[in-house]
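Usage

Read records sequentially. Each one opens with the input sequence:
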Amino acid sequence: MAMAQAQTNNADQDGNFSVPEQYLFKAELGLNEEIVRNISTQKNEPAWMLALRLKALAEFLARPMQTWGPDLSKLDINDFHYYLKPVGEKQSSWEDVPQDIKSTFDRLGVPDAERKYLAGLGAQYESEVVYHKLKDQWAAKGVIFLDPDSGLREYEHLYRQYFGTVIPYNDNKFAALNTAVWSGGSFVYVPKGVQIDVPLQAYFRINAEKMGQFERTLIIAEEGSLVSYVEGCTAPTYSSSSLHSAVVEIIAMPGARVRYYTIQNWSKNIYNLVTKRAFAYKDSVVEWIDCNLGSGVTMKYPAVVLKGEGARAEILSIAMASSPGQVQDSGGKVTHEAPNTSSRIISKSISSKGGRASYRGAVKVLPGATGSKSFVQCDALLIDAESRSDTYPYIDIHEADVDIGHEASVSKIGEDQLFYMMSRGIDSNTARNLIVNGFIEPLVKALPMEFAVEMNRLIEHEMEGSVG
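and closes with the structure output:
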């Protein structure tokens, strides 16, 4: 996700640049037990984490590649480096970060974003977090914002209690892969009643060719707390593929509110296969705002399990497929386990230049979840005749006393719209951008202002050269 600032050029803003590799350790191509053990040894992990990694590796290797969704037949799991440790240790002062890494994030505008907008920032480069800092005012209130290695080392009791409970290692093939080789990410703990009124941010950068990045994020929001978390990611374009397969686990205790923002702008050679899920307890609120522009193939369906009465979920999804063969397969999933819970899934997709955007979602109401309410809305915009949009909704209801709604629409930019705007002196490209921005505006306005501006800029860049 690109958080670049206005002073950088377009190439920098889109993250499509690379620097020469410098690393302390780089795993050979392919995946085996020796590599998993080496990752755990490099991190000096407790024995229980290594045992979990090895169990997950066996699960990953035993499971067949999934056949539903986008075509993954060209994904060669032996053609990636599963761990690359860059030069330099994690720093809490930006000036101490190695110069080549620092210049990469400087060009993307990340340090400037920290100074202006954020409560804390983590920056990951390849497999490791190279910079992590929480502002003192939040640390003084007991907020924990660390890289996972530090979190595991300093708060092992919380990791043993929560790690892998929302997304177990055997949840799906790529959750198993992440559990086996995870490295980097964030650990967030917000104490009871503490409300962080500005976002935390993590930024993930792949620089090396044929790289696999597998960050793991764990967020625990105690009773009555509030936290917002923004993640961003970029990578340069290579002729070969890279793999990004993250896992995000969120626990929202009673009365807590968690907002998780994603602005994904991976390069088109990335397989982006991600599992994200939250547990929402009594009267808590979990919001996923998920914006997907980049990658060659994305499979991502943020999910919420409503486990306590009165819990609420909101999933807002934007996907843009804007190049031949690009597939954005995204959406959301909600499971109503408790009575009087509510959910809303709003999906907006744009397909252009031969891209394919799909909504794939699920709403489940389990026995006992009486009084549940859920609404799903899927809107697709097709820019040209070569592009494609699909909707795959799944609704599974086991209670009679519920209120469930689903709407879907597919539209295209009409000649009458273009004519009306062009007759008032607006050129055709600007007119198309205005129509697209109006289409996604209800979701973009849910982003913090600085990131909404960035999202609109990225959409306009992706629209360049589109035909009506």
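Summary fields computed downstream for this record:
- Residues 1-13, 15-20 have pLDDT under 50 and may be disordered.
- Residues 10-300 form one domain.
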